[in-house]
Amino acid sequence: MIEKNMRVIIEGGLDAYHNMAVDEAIAKKSKIPTLRIYQWNPPAISIGYFQSLNQEVDVGACQKLGIDIVRRITGGGAVFHDNELTYSFVIPESAVSENIIESYNKICNGVITGLVELGIKAQFAPINDIVVGQKKISGNAQTRRYNQVLQHGTILLDVDVDKMFSILLVPNEKLKGKLIKNVKQRVTSVKAILGHEIGFNTVAHAIVRGFASEFKTKFTPGSLNEEELDETAKLTKKFMSKEWINKR
Amino acid sequence: MLKIYKAGKLIKIDVESKENKISKLRIYGDFFLHPEDSIEIIENVLIGCRYDRCAIKKTIDTVMKKNNIQSVGIDSDSLSEAITL
Predict the structure, then answer these.
(1) Measured on CA atoms in the order A19, A20, A21, A25, is the torsion positive or negative?
(2) What is the least distance, in Å, from the CA of B16 to any CA of chain A?
(3) B44/A contact by beta carbon, under 8 A
(4) Chain B residues touching residue A52 (CB < 8 angstroms)
């Protein structure tokens, strides 16, 4: 069953720890499905739940550049959050398919419908990507807890692969040049596809309309309630803690 | 030494064995497991397991079924192969 009304929260940049805390607080406390669209200020690297910080991230380079590092509660890979739009979507588990790939597809369709409205021919690429042609424009990650599905993902507004690899570690330093070249060929952005920049708000509202169409619902603009704000404060401490960031 | 294995997703393994049994194991990567903290259940149950691909795969299958663990981009085949690389 899909609820007829859902909440949308569009906000400017919080830091990495608050962003991850808000997403989890909504999953833990919200009684209505919620789409949240946001950015990261300062820019940040998020690593997947199962990744090792020291294998994936050049911590010293991040400190020098003022880039935050946070561990997500979702699996998947390391993501550099700069010049992009992030969404999170929380919906009861009972409202989507038990099959994880199918539920990725359903939720990604909200993003895809929004991108298509902007003139970007995006498609779902299992397991968890959205591509334009053969190039990735969006990565997505999902967790299921508190009887909810939380899926968050990014849409690249612009991309600087060289900057990204100045803070990410690669398994084989000798092959880094080749890897960067390869990633440049496999990644794209809203700006690269359309040939000009589009603002965060324009893309955000197109994504909201995309989710409304995919889930046959109406979104009401809202904000966090008191319970969610309290939970966010508690969870922010977790995301900032050394125990959490060094968990693996 | 870290073993790196490309399945649907990337699996990175830090494993040690003593007398042909797993004595230390950490599994890293960009895969998905639901629920996420079940990674620790899998790592713990494999300590003491015979350092043999079939034995490891069987142990993973059993623990995943018992705990209703769902995986995406990783399975008992790829994980047991990565551990015994």
Answers:
(1) positive
(2) 17
(3) no
(4) 12, 26, 28
Element (H, E) at B46: helix B38-46
Is A74 close to B30, i.e. CB distance below 8 A?
no
Q: What span, in angstroms and rounded, lies between the C-alpha atoms of A127 and A111?
A: 15
- The SS3 assignment for B9 reads coil
B27 vs A contacts (CB less than 8 Å): 50
Report the distance separating Cα A194 and Cα A46, nearest Å: 27
Q: Give the dihedral sign, CA B84/A77/A99/B64.
A: positive
Cα B51 to Cα A96, B57, B58, B63, B81: the distances in Å are 40, 11, 12, 17, 11
Q: Are A98 and A91 in contact (CB under 8 A)?
A: no
Q: Is the pTM of this model over 0.90?
A: yes
Distant-in-sequence, close-in-space partners of B34: CB < 8 Å, separation ≥ 6: A100, A143, A144, B69, B70, B71, B72
Residue listed under structure tokens 């619902």: A217
Average pLDDT for residues A232-244, to the nearest whole number? 98
Written as six digits, the tokens of A71 are 């561990």
Q: Do B4 and A171 touch (CB under 8 A)?
A: yes
Q: Is B32 on the interface with A (CB under 8 A)?
A: yes
CB distance from B12 to chain A under 8 Å? yes
Q: A248–B26: do the CB atoms touch at under 8 Å?
A: yes
Percent of chain A residues topping a pLDDT of 90: 89
Q: What percent of chain A has pLDDT over 70?
A: 99
Across the A:B interface, residue pairs with CB atoms under 8 Å apart total 59
Q: What is the mean pLDDT of each run of 10 residues along chain B (85 residues)?
A: 80 94 96 95 97 96 96 93 93
Residue A1's pLDDT is what? 52
**Crossing angle between the packed helical segments B53-66 and B38-46, to the nearest 10 degrees:** 140
